[in-house]
Write a structure and sequence with these properties.
The structure is a single chain. With 402 residues, this protein is mainly α. Helices cover 50% and strands 6% of the residues. The chain has helices spanning 32-42, 48-71, 79-96, 109-116, 122-132, 135-141, 148-168, 175-185, 196-227, 229-244, 251-255, 258-270, 304-308, 327-330, 351-366; strands at residues 77-78, 276-280, 285-286, 293-294, 299-303, 369-372, 396-401. α2 runs parallel beside α15, α5 (122-132) crosses α6 (135-141) and α7 crosses α9 (196-227).
């Protein structure tokens, strides 16, 4: 993943732009030099400086989340649904420049089509498996990995936003603006230019990847905090203390919330959001430690949960303990053992954005509400992972205004 990345630079996804031109033109689906070129040019979009520019947009979504929780306080709440609305608002605002009012509607169009992008029914699961493991099936049936009705909807929205930005010169410092900046800088790029379709191919998977993951991780974190009141009280104390020192919830304020980071890391460890990391051997390769020889094209599967729940690295892995990630304890363990956002050059490019989105949600919730169990709360969540890990029974909690 790191030292020998040049031998394993590609993922196992089917590389066929005829089957799915959006996915296979995205950073997720490209390979070799096309991926390197795209990653190099997109990396400036996700720097700390650019993220600071988006922070007011994310903060506005946090405020709307807080107002919604006020309305439903003291009720039994399925938390993942609420946080899915929050993450939809964040990503629709930052990736598409659109305010979708998810908290005002039963189901907004953005949320509806966002959930459909990666189909979760049996056919969707077959497509997903074939795109990774059985390419011949995907090519024979001309499967597209992404749901085409969702792609059609987001293409329409994205083009409307692009036209508006180019004709009215409005600027929000969001993903659309940053992609347009890149496009203007490299309109003469000779191979992989960022035309409108290629920009769309970055925006849609970015939206789809962030929609469920953020909501699910924060839901699992709140579930654990409802079971561990001492951890919740300590975290709230840190949040309130830091927020009181700043007039706004700034990037610097978030950086000072060390215990919040520890809580999220422990949640990512106990509940890895994806099942595995995948790579493909570019050429013949011998694993030095064992002498095992891999043929060119061999698929590599790294089971994330296997690392995160290995008692060699994390004693009593079923116990929720943020202290595993204190500065002292982190120094005693390889930093590459948490694989939630991938590892090496092909890790998640939106990691900083995801962290900021999760932290903002936690801040707006815990500084104002106590998270408690109710009659429908189950202590041990059952987890399934068809695409993204989730609990089929939901995460049921109650928010009480402080």
């Amino acid at each position: 993943m790191i030292r020998d990345f040049s031998s394993f630079p590609n993922k196992l996804f089917l590389d066929d732009k005829e089957c799915d031109p959006v996915f296979n033109n995205s950073l997720f689906g490209t390979r070799d030099q096309e991926w390197r070129s795209l990653r190099y040019r997109l990396s400036p979009v996700f720097t700390t400086g650019k993220l600071k520019g988006m922070l007011p947009l994310i903060g506005e979504c946090g405020e709307r989340l807080e107002r919604h929780l006020e309305k439903i306080s003291n009720e039994n709440v399925e938390v993942t649904d609420v946080l899915s609305r929050y993450s939809t608002e964040v990503i629709s605002s930052c990736a598409f420049g659109v305010k979708c009012d998810c908290f005002q509607k039963k189901v907004s169009e953005f949320q509806h089509y966002g959930k459909k992008i990666f189909p979760k029914d049996t056919i969707g699961l077959i497509k997903n498996i074939s795109y990774i493991f059985v390419h011949s099936v995907a090519k024979f049936f001309k499967f597209s990995l992404l749901n085409q009705s969702g792609v059609k909807y987001f293409r329409k929205v994205f083009k409307e936003v692009l036209n508006q930005r180019m004709t009215q010169s409005t600027r929000r410092n969001d993903f659309v603006d940053l992609l347009l900046d890149l496009k203007r800088q490299e309109e003469k790029h000779e191979i992989f230019g960022l035309d409108d379709e290629r920009m769309l191919a970055q925006a849609i998977p970015f939206f789809a990847a962030g929609l469920e993951t953020t909501a699910t991780i924060v839901s699992f974190a709140l579930h654990e905090l409802s079971l561990n009141s001492a951890i919740q009280d300590r975290l709230r104390q840190e949040i309130q203390s830091v927020v009181n020192n700043y007039e706004v919830i700034s990037y610097q304020a978030l950086e000072e919330m060390k215990y919040l980071k520890m809580v999220i890391l422990e949640t990512l460890r106990k509940y890895p959001i994806l099942s595995f990391i995948q790579r493909e051997s570019l050429h013949h390769y011998t694993i030095p430690e064992t002498g095992l020889q891999l043929e060119r094209g061999t698929g590599i599967i790294v089971p994330i949960r296997g690392f995160h729940h290995n008692p060699m690295y994390f004693p009593d892995p079923e116990v929720y303990d943020p202290e595993r990630f204190s500065d002292e304890n982190k120094q005693q363990r390889d930093s590459n053992l948490i694989l939630a956002f991938g590892i090496g050059p092909r890790n998640c490019i939106g990691k900083r954005f995801a962290w900021t989105t999760m932290m903002i949600a936690m801040v707006y919730i815990l500084r104002n509400f106590k998270v408690e169990r109710n009659s429908q709360t189950v202590e041990v969540l059952s987890i399934i992972s068809p695409h993204v890990s989730r609990s089929p029974s939901g995460v049921n909690l109650t928010f009480k205004r402080l």
